[in-house]
Every structure is written in C-alpha cells, then in structure tokens.
Design brief:
Helix content is 50%, strand content 11%. The protein starts with a strand and ends in a 23-residue tail after the last strand. It is extended. It has 176 residues and is mainly α.
Length: 176
C-alpha cells in the first residue's frame, strides 16, 4: 500500500501525521466544483438575461462576464478561507487545503494557489498541474508549491463525546 502520510513535528515535540491527497481524488473534487460553478453560471445567465431588455443585452452580457470572472477566481478562495480549507467538492470527499506545516490556509496562500490555476490549466486541460502532481512526492501542483500549501484528507470526525450518566460516589475520607 502506498503511504502518503507526511509527518510534521510541532514546536512542542508532538508529531502530526497528514495524509496527502493524490491527483485522482483531487480531480474528482475539481469536477464536483466545476459542476457547481456551471449551475451558478447557468442560473446567473438566465436571471441576467431575463431581467434585461433586448436593448441592453450587451450590458447583460457584460454583467454576466463580470459574474463569471468573480465566481471563477474567488469561488475556491472564499470556501478555502471561510469553510476550513475546503470547497464543496473537497468537503464532499473529505479533503481540505492546509499550509505545509498543517496550519489552516490563510488569505495570501489561498489567493496565490488559486491564481496559479491558470498556469496549471495550460497547455491542455490541466496538463501542467497533473504533471506537477505526478512528479511531486506530496502531489503538489504549481499553485501549492508557490503558496506552501498541500491538500490532505480531513480525518477529523465530528463525533460527539458521550459522557455516561453515572451517579457520583462520595469520597471514603472526609475532606475538611
């Protein structure tokens, strides 16, 4: 079995293990996010074109392109910052983006890694990004290398701790 666990030692001497996500599962998460963005584009286009008259169809097209720009470039940044490092696609597959040292990704790291998606996309449909992922032991694409981030499996489970309801026992010695 291929081990993709990266060990990080904290300043307190505690060793953390991060399970690095590979290119296949990251690609599936990207496809989920792509489909979500497609739905947003379709709904916004329909809404914009229904609310503009045929005289202002050009203005409606301009508004749509602005919406498309904002969604395309800031959708991942927004979710990585406000949703614990995970876009909806990553969240569905229990993935998230963190800094190389395991800390949550910040604004600068998220913006940098997502701006370089344009370079990863070249020359044919993520060819550079896929090649970088395959050549890196941590499966990093160019954006991850530049920003110092990595995509990991989110192993945290939000399981509530069940405290048993047991009657207390008085101490055997009287304390004064």
């Amino acid at each position: 079995m291929l081990d993709t666990t990266q060990s990080i030692e904290t300043p307190e001497g505690i060793e953390l293990g991060l399970r690095i996500a590979g290119p296949t599962i990251r690609g599936v998460a990207w496809i989920i996010d792509f489909l979500i963005r497609g739905v947003v584009y379709s709904l916004s286009y329909t809404l914009i074109m229904l609310t503009t008259s045929w005289f202002s169809a050009r203005a409606g097209a301009g508004i749509f392109f602005i919406v498309m720009f904002v969604v395309e470039w800031f959708y991942p940044v927004f979710f990585e910052i406000y949703s614990n490092g995970a876009t909806p696609g990553k969240r569905a597959l229990h993935l998230r983006v963190v800094n190389d040292n395991g800390t949550p990704v910040g604004w600068s790291g998220s913006i940098l890694r997502n701006l370089l998606r344009g370079v990863d996309f070249l020359p044919l449909f993520n060819a550079v990004g896929a090649l970088c992922c395959l050549l890196q032991p941590q499966f990093k694409r160019l954006g991850d290398m530049a920003a110092g981030t990595v995509v990991i499996y989110d192993d945290r489970r939000d399981v509530p701790v069940m405290i048993p309801n047991i009657d207390s026992i008085p101490p055997s010695i009287k304390m004064s």
